[in-house]
């Protein structure tokens, strides 16, 4: 028997972040539903291990909350798929888009969902799957405070839909952007016979950056493929009219190559790991 | 009377770095010549205050060393101007190109000077005018060790012409690149109502980066105009065939705007300085 007050949460997406959040919520006492239709065997396994239950779209629409935690490229279609069932639902769940997408895309999703009557919240996840923090913005953000009782770290931003996503974009633009700079410049220095000199000079005059790069660049390769779309979102976040959007087009191009260039990522991992000793 | 063994050094360029190096060398006991023909009144004043003497091109060619410390865009023409007088000189000075230019440009300068017989050294300056370090590479690099006796910090790189410049490019690509990321993302976060949240989150989860940005972004505005050409050199250092060269085209575009957009740089300075207190 499910207790009367138990929160039920629909979690769209069972990637590494989605399943980690699902596990945290089930451990916290929530019932977590998802739809595994069309998902990979790995996703299905991760979802089950996280204690998430496979459910119909109608069941998802009957939850208290819907959390969308999917790759940036499918955030819009994920919301659109829910529109028909949400329109026919009697009670409306709070839809929280937690994806790494730019504010304009978030507003597009909010508009897509508007006819359904489901309250929309702009969410952003900062941190690793092991310790995610949720930032929330928009008129209905306060309603997500309930998730804190089920194990999530939830912080309210005093801003409209778009503010949480802007925080995510700008934070990732600095951290994943610096990982791109460190990777691009290390590879270029190595190609030109200046790799060791670069690390020595950074260690001497920029010890904080040297330590940061040694800690972060080697962890990037398995995530590079996911960061391509995120860098493209950040380029759009800046906007075509400002020249610096090209910084993130360049970073997207770098990560697109590194996702497939094992020689380059092996070189980077060796380069930074040798120097830690 | 000039002592027999006093080193005479031709210093091309009397910008903030060039004049600081000139001052260091004259304080160290060297005689430092430059040519003020066609230079601004500010450069002429800086040169004189640094103890540098105005001299003809022929006198420069008779020095022990020629140090080129000029804006990246004029490094080639600065060398080319010296070619006729160097060709006719009996003894050949060591020509050290110390500019923030990419290895291919350095090689072009080396080829330009080759017919003169003057030994060529690839130099790179890392650090502020108050504490510059000189890295030297190429077959004749060891000859620049003499400059250490006159107050310069000189370090040899075990590499050909191009290695010192590659170090400079990759080091500046990380440090001035991160300044670009921090500027672009702070301005975008502020535009989207997430500026304070960004600084709070960085302070909490990326304290090293938060401190670095607070220390470096506010010092960037007066240098932005000079960094445009340097970012373009770094883009060429990467090469057109690699997508990440666009990172630095974007950074060049950002600095080109910030060099003239006082509203934006005032915003950045206020943004970071408010948070230091």
The spatial strand order of the largest sheet of chain A comes to 3-2-1-4-5-6-7-8
What is the radius of gyration of chain A?
A: 20 Å
CATH class of the largest domain in chain A: Alpha Beta
Give the second-level CATH assignment, the architecture of the largest domain in chain A: 3-Layer(aba) Sandwich
Largest interface: A-B, 61 and 60 residues
Annotation field: number of helices of chain A: 11
Full CATH superfamily name of the largest domain in chain A? NAD(P)-binding Rossmann-like Domain
Q: Could you give a short account of the major beta sheet of chain A? A: 8 strands, mixed
Distance between the termini of chain A: 55 Å
Structure summary, number of beta strands of chain A = 8
Main structural class of chain A: alpha/beta
Fraction of helical residues of chain A: 40-55%
Determine the strand fraction of chain A and express it as a percent band: 5-15%
Task: Look at the structure and give the mean pLDDT of chain A.
Answer: 94
Shape of chain A: elongated
Provide the low-confidence segments of chain A as ranges. none
- Oligomer state equals homodimer
Write up what this structure looks like.
Chains A, B: Residues 191-257 form the Phosphogluconate dehydrogenase NAD-binding putative C-terminal domain. Chains A, B: GO terms for molecular function: NADP binding. Chains A, B: InterPro entries: 6-PGluconate_DH-like_C_sf (IPR008927), 6PGD_dom2 (IPR013328), 6PGDH_NADP-bd (IPR006115), HIBADH-related_NP60_sf (IPR051265), NAD(P)-bd_dom_sf (IPR036291), Pgluconate_DH_NAD-bd_C (IPR015814). Chains A, B: This is 6-phosphogluconatedehydrogenase protein. The structure is a homodimer of 277-residue chains. Chain A is α/β, with parallel strands linked by helices. Chain A has 2 domains: 8-159, Rossmann fold (3-Layer(aba) Sandwich), CATH 3.40.50.720; 166-276, Orthogonal Bundle (N-(1-d-carboxylethyl)-l-norvaline Dehydrogenase, domain 2). Chain A has helices spanning 16-27, 41-49, 57-61, 75-88, 103-113, 163-191, 195-205, 207-216, 224-238, 245-258, 262-276, and strands spanning 8-12, 31-34, 53-54, 65-68, 94-97, 120-126, 133-137, 153-156. In chain A, strands 3-2-1-4-5-6-7-8 form an 8-stranded mixed β-sheet, with helices on both faces. The radius of gyration of chain A is 20 Å and the shape is elongated. The interface between A and B is large, with 61 and 60 residues.
């Amino acid at each position: 028997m499910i207790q009367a007050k138990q929160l039920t949460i629909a979690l769209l997406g069972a990637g590494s972040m989605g399943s980690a959040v699902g596990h945290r919520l089930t451990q916290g006492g929530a019932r977590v539903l998802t739809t595994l239709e069309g998902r990979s065997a790995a996703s299905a396994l991760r979802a089950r291990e996280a204690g998430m239950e496979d459910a119909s779209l109608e069941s998802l629409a009957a939850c208290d909350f819907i959390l969308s935690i999917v790759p940036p490229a499918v955030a819009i279609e994920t919301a659109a798929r829910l529109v028909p069932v949400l329109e026919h639902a009697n009670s409306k769940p709070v839809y929280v888009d937690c994806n790494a997408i730019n504010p304009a895309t978030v507003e597009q999703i909010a508009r897509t969902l508007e006819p359904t009557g489901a309250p929309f919240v702009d969410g952003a996840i900062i941190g690793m799957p092991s310790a995610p923090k949720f930032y929330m913005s928009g008129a209905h953000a306060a309603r997500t405070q309930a998730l804190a009782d089920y194990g999530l770290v939830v912080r309210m931003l005093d801003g409209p839909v778009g503010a949480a996503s802007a925080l995510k974009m700008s934070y990732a633009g600095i951290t994943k952007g610096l990982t791109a700079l460190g990777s691009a410049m290390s590879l270029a220095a190595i190609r030109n016979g200046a790799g060791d000199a670069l690390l020595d000079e950074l260690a001497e005059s920029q010890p904080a950056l040297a330590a940061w790069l040694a800690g972060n660049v080697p962890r990037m390769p398995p995530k590079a493929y996911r960061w391509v779309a995120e860098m493209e979102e950040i380029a759009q976040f800046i906007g075509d009219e400002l020249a610096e959007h090209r910084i993130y087009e360049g970073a997207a191009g770098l990560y697109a190559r590194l996702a497939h260039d094992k020689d380059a990522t092996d070189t980077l991992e060796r380069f930074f790991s040798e120097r830690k000793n």
